[in-house]
Amino acid sequence: MFGGGNDNPENDVRARFWQTAKRAARQVPFMDEVVAAYYCALDSRTPLRAKGTLLAALAYFVLPADAIPDFILGLGFTDDVAVLTAAIATVKAHVTPAHRLAARRALAELD
């Protein structure tokens, strides 16, 4: 289902996240929260339900097959933004200051 050959969304997200994040950085206005959500999803202390919600949204973000293809300039990430916004809002209590700090550091390195 997720395209990595092993039906494990965490592995797919790990494998594709940074490549997609670099492409989307200028089009997604809250990329810092997306990266913080990535770190939250991979944190072993994150509750399973929150982790599952974030991994599903992040998998939708990184995988090429979605409602609006990401290569369509100006529109490509709009559906991804909607999915990510909903997922992050749902689990925001689990995104910690440590996740946000890691996100800021990682984004600084992308520049």
Automatic annotation (TrEMBL):
Keywords assigned by UniProt, alphabetized: Membrane, Transmembrane, Transmembrane helix
GO cellular component entries: endomembrane system
Compartment annotation: Endomembrane system
Keyword Transmembrane part of the UniProt annotation: yes
Topology with respect to the bilayer: Multi-pass membrane protein
Residue spans crossing the bilayer: none
Domain DUF1232: 50-85
Classification via InterPro entries: DUF1232, UCP031804
Protein's name in the database: DUF1232 domain-containing protein
Organism in which the protein naturally occurs: Allomesorhizobium camelthorni
Organism lineage string: Bacteria, Pseudomonadati, Pseudomonadota, Alphaproteobacteria, Hyphomicrobiales
